[in-house]
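Throughout our pipeline, every protein is held as a single compact record rather than as scattered files. The remainder of this section carries one protein's record, kept here as part of the documentation.

===
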Amino acid sequence: MPVALLALAIGAFGIGTTEFVIMGLLPEVAAEFGVSIPTAGYLASGYAVGVLLGAPVLAVLGTRISRKRMLMLLMGLFVLGNLVSALAPAFGVMLAGRVIASLAHGAFFGIGSIVAAGLVAPHRKAAAISLMFTGLTLANVVGVPLGTLLGQQAGWRLTFVAVAGLGVVGLAGVAALVPRDVPAPAPSPAPDGPVPARGPRPRTGRIRDELAAFRNVQVLLAMGMTVLGFGGVFAAITYIAPMMTEAAGYADTSVTWLLVLFGIGMVAGNLVGGRFADRALLPMLCIALVALAGTLAAFTATAHDKAAAAVTLTLIGAFGFATVPPLQKRVLDQTANAPTLASAMNIGAFNLGNALATWLGGLVLGAGFGPTSPNMAGAGLALGALALAVTSALLERRGPRGAAPAPRSGLRARAAGAAAAGGAAEPEPAHAGTGPSAGAGTGPSADAVRAAPGGPSADSLPSGGRGR
């Protein structure tokens, strides 16, 4: 894998750490500013709102400059936000710093996914995306516990200074390692077809194309899967503290390490999901969602036993994050011509799922169904995502209006690319003996393709015939 993915993973690690570390530092922050814990909680919800708002706005702005430069600007914004939080003289200023840092979140992961996919061959896109997201998952295993410990022992301000330092390292890594012009991700190969060529160098200023991507029903279905699928995970995790203390009997101090187990599951699921999504994306997605729904439903019972609860929590992290690389790759595949806005919006969809799950979990808890009831709500959300995945697969098989066309392969794809580049690759009439069977050639002849600007050489043409 390209070393540039390391720079993206470092940035993802810093962003993941700053997003979640505040949850363990709320008492210290509330005490210093003289506010209540619920009021301090706005530092978490304000971050989520910033992600939702910042993703589309900054993604649109990012279509006008190179993706490398945009990633550098986003990391600079992230560093600025964390420094504002670290130096804040009042609660309102810290809240503003949290929002500033959050604005970079959705656009960084959205544009970073495009860059990661463009750095590798088409059949390794999901694996490359998963490597970038490994930084986010490791943040939950290493960054958040260490940041919480540092804040509790040396002061919460030092935690945000350290996170800003991670942002500086990520910014330097992007500047040094990410190529200036990353090719657009090539279309994924057909099941039994050849590997497509890389995409063109990125163009800028195509806002109309970016918005047009949302007319594709497959893009909307993928985002719906993101909201519901990862919403199922958040339904359980948001209320994990009362669930583990009241139902499983863990001490309050044990919750942090239970979340580390959840993070380990996220790391494993992310890597496995990325590996298998490159082979069979929709089947992998459906399997992960079925497993997630079943595990969440089982957690209603296993949450009453300490050992079973710990194992189940790890599995929820694994099955939940196994859906992330496939869903992000799905959006990129369906918006190959203009992926920036849709990719960033899909990251925002994770936060929308968080908000939906938090509301739904609170609803069932408020209705008196018990501390483990959010798990069943999460299972229902995961089943909803599964229904959307099945619908997406059926629509793709039928080839409905609005679905992205299947990638073309062979000489037709090369001829189409030559024509788009200004070539005159006109198809020749089929003649006997010019194709695999007489009169069956409907594509361009080898001579026409070879004559087109950028067309393949004679050595690159497949053997056994000149046309399809």
In short: The chain has 18 helices and no strands. Residues 190-205, 402-468 have pLDDT under 50 and may be disordered.
